[in-house]
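Field guide to reading this record: the first block holds the primary sequence, the second block holds the structure written as discrete tokens, and the final block holds curator observations. Each block starts with its own label. This record concerns Glutamyl-tRNA reductase, catalogued under organism Polarella glacialis.

BLOCK 1 — SEQUENCE
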Amino acid sequence: VDELLCALVSSIHGLREESALAGCFHEGATKSELRKHVGRIDQDVQQWVGRLSKDLPRDLDDGCDAELLLNTIQEVHIFAFRRDVEDPSWSEDSCSRYAQALLRYSAETSQGEPLITEAVCLCVHGRAEFYIAASETRRLAAIECFDKFARSGCGATLEVEDRRLFTKSGREATRHLFEVSAGLQSQVPGEVQVLFQVKACYDRTVADRVAAAEGTGDAKTIVKMLNAAVRAGKLVRSQTRISKGAVSASAAAVELMGARAIGALGRPSVSSACVVGEGQAARLLLIHLAKQHPDLRIHLACSTAEAAEGIILEAKKAFAGAGSAVAVRIAELPELRCDALLLALEMQMSAAVRSESVAALDQTLRQLDSSRRMLLIDTSDIPVWSVERASDWPFVCAHGSSDVQSVLAKNIVARENEAWFARDLLSQQIDDFQVWLCAQGGFPYLAALQARGEAIRQNETDKMALKLKGLKEQDREALDVMTKAIVTRLLSPVMDSMRGPEDTTHDKRDKIAGLRDIFVLKPHPNRKPQLPPPANQ
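BLOCK 2 — STRUCTURE
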């Protein structure tokens, strides 16, 4: 504020001096000249304030005024760190222990109630993301508590400042997690593995709470947030094509095989295929062939049948369907009579195996004629067999690594286009969760109002004790049920209004603040928010 006032005063002094020199304040000066000067000052001030606001943290979400912040509403903050996957101190177990240590640190250092009520660590994409929940009225204190924890050494490697990537709060934190779950924060949009990681974090968090005898019925904020993020990730993948199309070389080769079958073979599908290779690429080709074409007869050709059986066994661990592949020797390749050959020759293969593979392939292609055609796709990372050689045999349709890369590029562009639709879907999911989160802040006040109504009912019943003395026990129980029902019915419209599904976050805050102020309520100490999430989450 001081800087802004100084800038305004300096600008006004500058205007006076310039205007005096130009004669703008003298008699006969035109008003348009003054307007131009004032307009330039206004534009300069707006640009200066805009630059200043970019450097300031977003203290309040959704334009919420400080007066509307409620200590019963929880807010989520994210602290992301660069994570070394190979470093044991950054393993998922270690990061989870840091989160638990953070809760203990908050309980030990906070005066009164702990600043941080929940803490969870999500490990994804080479990052360790710590999610903490705290009352929105204690936002800055909670962030400061985390920073002190990171610098204290309790968080082990967290105190290394160059590892800190970003910090997000409130709605931006919710948006980040939902976009991570939907695959919008991945290098390849729509990546499925990240959804599994978020789901695993949710399962682990629920299991930890059950093991700690906390149960899952008190609607913990971060647990609900993780669950909502998983649902949002599934929704995006089911209603858009962001996860469609191969984005790895092996998957793209299999997709290319299916797309070129009718042109190469004269029929819409391949009935049998053989993978030639002995490394990781061959294993991945087996897995993707089995996944995308479950009815396909698959062979794996290696230098020995034992080597092929070992690769098939490894592929079966990743996908059971890959176990149906048949192991053969490369020398048997000409006898297989397959519709498609997928080459996956790698650098670690011996020179003898490479030569044997090329010889067997040449012999296989020589046997082709008009009655027997073949589709050949080369994904090898070494120049052992050139696709151009296939031009010597007219009954072979050959595709090399450049064709596979073209498929990859096309699919990635398509996914990036789908990301726009995915963000539109997520916006509604984020709004729904934020409204649900605000609604939680009303339940402690509703519980307090219920307790007050019950106290009034009990007090009035006690006053009438002498007159009710002659009632039978059965009649007294009926009277209690009736008076409790009256109190409940009186409060029912308030509760229904608090659950209003069409409310915005501002509506929820206004209702909660109004409820608190009208009845002069304090949050009920023994009641946790329990409003279920909206049905469309």
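BLOCK 3 — OBSERVATIONS
The beta strands are 74-82, 118-124, 127-135, 164-169, 272-276, 297-302, 326-329, 340-343, 374-378, 396-399.
The longest strand covers residues 74-82.
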